[in-house]
Amino acid sequence: MAKLVFTKRAQRDYDCLDTATKKRMLDILKVYAVDPMKHAKKLSQSRLGTYRYRIGEYRVVFDFEGEKVVVLRIGHRRDIYRH
Question: Which domains are delineated in the chain?
Answer without folding.
Answer: 3-74 (3.30.2310.20)
